[in-house]
């Protein structure tokens, strides 16, 4: 950090102007910094390669009809794996079930969260702090640990193997975090804008729908996508609550994939994994790094 | 330094609304919660009571019964007092899974994800921009993949004829069979692979809020890189580190699918953490009451960790 004194030479100014002061870049730095930067890059590449190999396997194996457990360059590139699973039973129905389950549950979560966040964000009341603390506390509870009682309860009230029941449970399990996140975003919408809506005679629900929500669109998108992606990857909940094959989402059919054909066709398993992963990857690309930060904010504590 | 502060558009005027509150309540609208104003909260409260509180209360009941899918407790459920807990505390397999859960949490979360996440966040600050972008994308990709997919990918990586052995035999090292010889280490590595991105994002957000002049003055005072890390970076990041540790511990405690896919808890229960033990007892052996007692213990550990997390959270998030 040699060039940041206030002597005011040309070099100093370009140094200060180029890039954020928080992230020193290698340009124009002394040999020591350049070496540190090169060493950092090399270290990052090594870590990146270690992380890349399993990802590389799934991509390469999906195009290789003779895929094994090891990562290898396909001797012949082919789409046969994709063709083999390109049917309703293996691919379309599980993915449709996933969409139904996670889309439905996301809808339940977000509607309930927005409605609940509004009074929490706008009004004062004595139970507010304890209520918020309870909500934050329950974001940390391991959902895994309540799945056995939920199963037993669902058997009793005859909700087991019901898509509707699974949607409600999945929706409820994501609710605490969604409320917490939504309330945070809602707090940043100035109340003054709403007050003008009220004086014009618009009701609370109307102002919420046509004034508040449009102003927190990006925050709402982060919360929605976060909720959806978390549910899409969830295995334990549908694994416990849904039984009949025609109800199972992709997370569970992928687990049963091997037994279906007796012998595991790794190429097909890889191809199906890719189909199943594409929605979350696309949503991530769509949201860019904001989603990553949304996730980080989220704590992602869902089990 | 809260992680939640990384969410966009925070800290705008409405958040500082506290000082403005008094005079707003004097205006006609008021800001007190009335009965009609609390109506929108009903759907959320109903869902939470029915599907979160309900099962938790029910599990307290179930844990003290001999409820079972088949056998004695299936036809008629009766109270057994603390029998389930006594059974658990005297069962070697239970303590085995407690020990494995501890190893799994410490190795994969507290050490693995936490340190690798910090290292990556520190490297991001210095490394070439393109390299940083590509590598962080790969690390994040590992994190957003569905749990079952991650389980399969890491299974193939560690399998006897998998990628790891192809690579290490190519450089002349003896092949490893971690899934068989030390399965808990294999699933721990898998959890690091899957979870490092989270800590990386948390730490890189926290690091970007550290003013650079702090480092400069430390450097001028003659502090080397290690010294600067320990006596400047770590103290400033302490809240972020504490929160992150709490969150990844909570996540790791409830990992089920990843281990279930990779090893199924085996071989011979050598990677059977508490969630897998609980599942096996409840469903393979049909002992719902006993399984619930174990689940309740897991829930209590989670609740304790969650309370700690609550205490660590900055005050502005609780308003």
Mean pLDDT of chain B: 84
Number of helices of chain A: 14
Please give the number of β-strands of chain B: 0
Largest sheet of chain A: none
Domain count of chain B: 1
Percentage of residues in strands of chain B:
under 5%
Q: Count the strands of chain A?
A: 0
The count of helical stretches of chain B stands at 15
Q: Rounded to an integer, what's the Rg of chain B over CA atoms?
A: 24 Å
So what's the overall shape of chain A? Answer: globular
- Class based on secondary structure composition and strand pairing of chain B: mainly alpha
By CATH, the architecture of the largest domain in chain A is named: Orthogonal Bundle
CATH class call of the largest domain in chain A: Mainly Alpha
How would you name the CATH homologous superfamily of chain B? MetI-like
The 3D shape of chain B can be described as globular
CATH class call of chain B: Mainly Alpha
CATH architectural group of chain B? Orthogonal Bundle
Q: Provide the β-strand percentage band of chain A.
A: under 5%
Please summarize the sheet with the most strands of chain B: none
Organism (chain A): Brachybacterium epidermidis
Transmembrane segments (chain A): 42-63, 95-118, 130-154, 160-180, 220-244, 264-286
Region (Disordered) (chain A): 1-33
Membrane topology (chain A): Multi-pass membrane protein
């Amino acid at each position: 950090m040699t060039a940041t004194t206030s002597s005011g030479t040309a070099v100093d100014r370009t140094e200060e102007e180029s890039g954020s002061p928080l992230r020193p870049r290698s340009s124009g730095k002394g040999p020591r910094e350049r070496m540190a930067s090169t060493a950092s890059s090399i270290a990052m590449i090594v870590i990146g390669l270690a992380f890349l190999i399993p990802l590389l396997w799934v991509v390469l194996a999906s195009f290789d009809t003779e895929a094994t457990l090891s990562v290898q360059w396909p001797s012949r590139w082919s789409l046969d794996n994709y063709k083999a699973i390109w049917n309703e039973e293996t691919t379309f129905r599980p993915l449709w079930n996933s969409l139904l389950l996670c889309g439905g549950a996301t809808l339940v979560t977000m509607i309930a969260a927005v409605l609940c966040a509004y009074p929490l964000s706008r009004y004062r009341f004595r139970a507010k702090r304890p209520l918020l603390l309870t909500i934050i506390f329950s974001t940390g509870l391991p959902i895994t640990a309540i799945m056995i009682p939920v199963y037993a309860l669902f058997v009793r009230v005859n909700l087991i193997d019901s898509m509707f029941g699974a949607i409600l449970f999945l929706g409820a399990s994501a609710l605490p975090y969604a409320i917490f996140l939504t309330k945070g975003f809602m707090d940043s919408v100035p109340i003054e804008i709403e007050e003008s809506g009220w004086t014009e005679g618009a009701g609370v629900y109307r102002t919420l729908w046509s004034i508040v929500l449009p102003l927190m669109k990006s925050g709402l998108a982060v919360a929605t996508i976060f909720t959806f992606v978390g549910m899409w990857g969830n295995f334990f909940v549908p694994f416990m609550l849904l039984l009949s094959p025609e109800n199972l989402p992709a997370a569970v059919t992928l687990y049963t994939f091997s037994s279906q054909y007796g012998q595991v066709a790794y190429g097909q398993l890889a191809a199906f994994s890719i189909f199943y992963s594409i929605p979350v990857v696309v949503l991530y690309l769509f949201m860019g790094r904001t989603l990553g930060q949304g996730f980080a904010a989220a704590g992602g504590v869902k089990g | 330094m809260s992680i939640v502060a990384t969410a966009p558009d925070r800290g705008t005027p409405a958040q500082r609304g506290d000082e403005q509150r008094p005079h707003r309540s004097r205006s006609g609208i008021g800001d007190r919660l009335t009965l009609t104003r609390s109506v929108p909260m009903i759907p959320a409260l109903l869902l939470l009571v029915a599907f979160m509180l309900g099962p938790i209360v029910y599990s307290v009941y179930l844990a003290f019964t001999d409820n079972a899918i088949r056998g004695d407790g299936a036809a008629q459920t009766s109270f057994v007092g603390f029998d389930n807990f006594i059974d658990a505390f005297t069962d070697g397999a239970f303590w085995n899974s407690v020990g494995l859960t501890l190893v799994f949490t410490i190795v994969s979360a507290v050490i693995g994800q936490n340190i690798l996440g910090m290292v990556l966040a520190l490297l991001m600050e210095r490394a070439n921009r393109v390299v940083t972008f590509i590598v962080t994308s790969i690390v994040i990709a590992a994190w957003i993949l569905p749990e079952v997919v991650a389980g399969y990918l890491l299974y193939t990586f560690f399998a006897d004829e998998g990628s790891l052995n192809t690579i290490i035999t190519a450089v002349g090292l003896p092949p490893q069979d971690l899934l068989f010889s030390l399965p808990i280490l294999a699933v721990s590595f898998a959890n690091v692979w899957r979870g490092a991105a989270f800590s990386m994002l948390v730490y890189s957000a926290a690091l970007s809020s550290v003013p650079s002049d702090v480092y400069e003055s430390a450097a001028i005072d003659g502090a080397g890189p290690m010294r600067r890390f320990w006596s400047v970076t770590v103290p400033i990041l302490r809240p972020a580190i504490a929160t992150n540790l709490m969150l990844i511990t909570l996540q790791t405690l409830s990992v089920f699918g990843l281990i279930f896919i990779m090893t199924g808890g085996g071989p011979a229960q050598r990677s059977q953490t508490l969630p897998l033990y609980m599942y096996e007892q409840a469903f393979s052996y049909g002992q719902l009451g006993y399984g619930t007692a174990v689940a309740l213990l897991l829930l209590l550990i989670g609740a304790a960790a969650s309370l700690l997390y609550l205490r660590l959270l900055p005050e502005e998030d609780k308003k």
